[in-house]
Amino acid sequence: KLDPLPLCLPHVKIKVPQKFLLCASGESVKVYSSSSEECVHDLQGHTDLVSGIVRNPSNHLQVYSCSADGTVRLWDFTDGILIKVQPHSLPRSFAIAASFFALCTVLVKLFQLVAVHLPLSGDQEVEARELSAVLCDVSPSGAASFGRKVRVVGLPGTSVANKFFLKSGNKKGAKNAFTCVSCHPKEDCIATGHEDGKIRLWRNFNQKKEYTYSTLHWHHGAVNTLQFTPEGTNLLSGGIESVLVQWHYTQENQKDFLPRLGGAITHIAVSPDGSLFCTSHSDNKITIIQSCVKVSAIIQGLVKGEGVRTDLTIDPRSKALVLNGKPGHLQFYSLHRDKLLYNLDIVQQEYIHEEGLDQFEVVKAAFDTRGNWLATVEERTQKGSELEINLKLWAYDEQTQSFMLNTTVTAPHEDQITAMCFSPSPETTMLVTISFDGHFKAWLLADHSDTKAEGACWSCDFVGGYHHLKPGCCCFSADGSLLAVGFQEVVTVWSPSWELLTTLSQPPGAIRDLCFGRLSCSKYLLGTSTKNQLCCWNLLTCSLEWSTPVDVSLLQADPLSENMAAFCSQSGCSDLFVFKPGEPRPLYSQKALCTGKVQRAVFAPRDQMLESCEEHAQWLNRSQLYFFTQHMDLMTFSTKTEEDRLLASSKRLMVDDSVAVTPFYLLLGKHRQQQEALTNPMAERIQLPQGSIAIKELLYTPAHVLPSASFLCSMFVRSLLISSSSAR
C-alpha cells in the first residue's frame, strides 16, 4: 500500500480543553498537546484529503471532520475513537451552525453552500440526505466572495441578506479584491481582508439603513487570514510578512505585533476562551501563542519549501531524513516519530524575504558512513557575475549533539558541482566531488587518524579527468575499493590510488546515474542514460551483462540488501520496479505510481527487521522506501503487517456495527448477551481467554465513560463463574 506523508496543515482548530489542538493533515486529523507539542492521537479513517474540522456544539469532547471522500465523521478526539460516519455529496470545507445543529458544507463541484441536517441515530453509519441550499453561486475558493463583492446570507430560519461592493481602484496598480472574511461574534460587523493589504470593517449590514465600513492598514502584501477573538475585543490578521497583528476592536489605532514567526501566515485559530491563539504557516509549521502575544509552543512538520535541491539522505547517527529546510538550512526530520529534530544553519547568513534577490542556496549534502562528517555545497548566482560556490565540511560534536563547521573551501571548482560522495572505506576519510569544469577532486582529512583534533582540516589530495569530458555522476563501491565516474557517454573505474582501471562501453546517451550492487551483487555496476537505457556491467569480466530500453529517472540502491529501485517515466506518470541485478524478474512493480517524474528517493533502514511479511513485500523487510512526487509530497510504502500494528495501537476499542457506538452501551450490550446466555439452559459457556475483546474493553475504555465500579465488578465476576448446568 502506498501511504502519503502529509506535508501541509491546511486547517487548524483549538478545542476545549485548551490542552488539545486539532489540525487537518492530509487524510487524517492530528490531535496535538499544546504544552508538550507531541501528537496525542492520529484520527485516521478518511480516504481523501480532509478539508475541514469543527467542534460538535452539543459535546465539547467531540469533533466533526469533513473530507473530499464524501463523508463527515464524528470523533471523540480525547480518546481517538471514531463514533459515526455520515456519507453525503463531495464536500470541500464546512462550519457548524450551533443554533440549528446542522452542517454547512461548501460543495466543490457545484460551488454551493448547503446546510446538511445530521440525523440522530445510534447506528455508526448514517447517510445524511436532508440538504437545503443556502447560497448557490459560491466562488471556487470556498468563500462567498466574488472579486470585489461579498454576500451576507442567513442560514435557514433567518432573514439576513446583504451585499458588499468595492469599486475597482482608480490608482495604478491598486488591488482591493477580497481575500478573507471573518464575522464578529457579538456585533453586526464583518472584517474582510484584501490584496492591497487593507482590512475593512463593515457595519450596519443587518439594519435597514445603508451599510458603512472603515479601513485598517498595516500589511504591505495581501491579507491571508482574519480571526476575531471569542469576545470580539480583538481582531487578528496575518500575511506574507510572517507577523501576527492584533488589532484592538474599540481602539483601531492601537495594535500589537508578534514578528519573525517563520513562513507566511496562512490560517489563524483562537481557543474558545481566548487564552490561546494558533497560526499555521506556509512552511508547514503551527505556532501556539498566548493571549499576551507571546509564543508558547511550536509544532513543526516537514519543512515545505519551493523545492528540494539536495538529494534525500539519511543521517547514520539519528536515522533522520536530511534535506533542504528553511532557506539556507538543512532539516533533520525523524521519520519514525514524524517530528522535526532540528535545523542546521549551513549558509549562516540572514535570509532576506524579497522577490528577485539572489542569495546562497544549499544544493548538495552527503554523510560519511559513520555519521562523523557532513559535506555541503552552497551556490549563488548573481546577474552579471560568476557562480559563487562554497564547499563546507562539518564535524559531529558529541557535546552539542550536532554538526560544527570544520572547513570552508571557497570556489572548490571552476563550475557547478554536480555530485559528491564519501568513501565508505574505514581506512581513510575521503570525499570526492565532480564538476562541469571537467574534473573530479578527492578531498582528504589532513590527520584522519584523529578526527577530533583541533588542527584537523580538509585539503585537496587529487584532481582527475578524462579526455576533457564533463563528469555527471559518481559512486563508490560498498567497500570503497572502486570509484566509478561517468564522463558523458563513458564510465571510468578508478582505484583508491587513483589509477584508471578500466572504461566501460555505453550505448549512445550521456550517463545519468551510476550505482554499485550490494552484498552478493557487488560485482555489478548499474547505470542509466539520457537515451532511455538501463545497463548492468559485470566488473569481473568488464563487459555488459544486460541492458533494457527504459526511461529511468532515478536509480536507488538499498544499503542493507541487494535490492534496487528504479523509477521510470512513461506517459506522464512514474512506474516503480524493484529488482536484484543478478535476477531477470523484478521483485515488485507498480504502474502509475504518481504523476510526473520522481527525482528524489532514499531507502531508510528500519530499527527492527520485519517478520512474517507477504512475499511481494519482502523487499521492505530491512528498509523502507521514501520518495518525493512532482507536487512535493513525501510518499512511502507500508506492508500489511505494519498496517495491522497501527490499527491495533490506534483502535483499542473495537466498535461493532451491530451494537451501539458508545463505550458504555457497548459494555452494557455485552452484559445483556451474557445474561441471555445464562438464562438459556442449553447455552454453552463461552470461555474468555486473557486477550479477549471483552477484557480489553474493560481495561482500555476511558474512565470518564465507564459505568459504576460495582456494576463492572459484578459483571466481571459472573463471567468467571461456572454455571450449575455446566458443572453437572
From TrEMBL:
It holds the Pfam family Beta-prop_WDR75_1st. SUPFAM superfamilies: WD40 repeat-like (SSF50978). Its main location: nucleus. GO terms for molecular function: RNA binding. It comes from the Eukaryota. It is found in: Nucleus, Nucleolus. PROSITE patterns: WD_REPEATS_1, WD_REPEATS_2, WD_REPEATS_REGION. GO terms for biological process: positive regulation of rRNA processing; positive regulation of transcription by RNA polymerase I; rRNA processing. One of its GO terms (cellular component) is small-subunit processome. The keyword Signal does not apply. Residues 312-632 form the WD repeat-containing protein 75 second beta-propeller domain. The keyword Nucleus applies. Keywords: Nucleus, Repeat, Ribosome biogenesis, rRNA processing, Transcription, WD repeat. InterPro entries: Beta-prop_WDR75_2nd, WD40/YVTN_repeat-like_dom_sf, WD40_repeat_CS, WD40_repeat_dom_sf, WD40_rpt, WDR75. WD repeats lie at residues 43-85, 171-202, 216-247. This is WD repeat-containing protein 75 second beta-propeller domain-containing protein.
